[in-house]
Write a structure and sequence with these properties.
- There is one protein chain.
- By secondary structure, the chain is an all-alpha fold.
- It has one domain (2-223).
- 80% of the residues lie in helices and 0% in strands.
- Helix 1 packs across helix 4, helix 2 packs antiparallel against helix 3 (52-75) and helix 3 (52-75) crosses helix 6.
- The two termini are 23 Å apart.
Amino acid sequence: MNRPLAVARIHAMDHATVLVLPWAVLASALVINVIVWSLVPEAAAKGTGGILSLYCFSWAMISVLVARGFPFQLGLGVTRRDFLTGTFLFLAAFAVASAVLLVGLNLLERATGGFGLGGRFFRVPWFTEVPDVQLVAIYALPMVFFVGLGMLFAAVWSRFRATGTVALLTGIGLALVVPIALITRSGAWPSVGAWFGDLVPLTAVALLAGIGALAGAGSWLTLRRAPV
């Protein structure tokens, strides 16, 4: 495990990308929301989705770390298996640490009455309306989805460059459009809506994490044969 841990430490050494920028982006989104709440008080009680800024930046972050770090670390003598194992360890630690911080911010927002304005930024409607013991999972599992997709895009770029990336985007588009067309043609939207309506937040984020895990497995298979 020494080499995978070394890979994870090298990822973590990029302090600006890993530690500063994700939370700077989240803080800027929070500031914008606070300004809006001050100007439009009736908007404070509605969820804005601003917390997604952290998750979307994490997608970009892992794409950069993998695409840039893969040839660099293999040049240092790290094997593909060690690089992938270390990267997954780093991502697991990042997801859990981010979730713990978000739980703390959720509790702070709750204790201060939405930062004194009745706002809901970290308390996402429906998703975070769960027992406190489930909050770490509620925040961590969607991170698995975003970083898994980011890693897959980085892996495809590393192996197939622009051609592969366009093909991946096309495949994702078809994977979304074809089921929608089939559901629409069969008139099954009421059944689909009822199924989604029966979901609880923990199940919903677990499904997202499952998709992210599949994307991570795809990145593993792709990077195993990627040129350096």
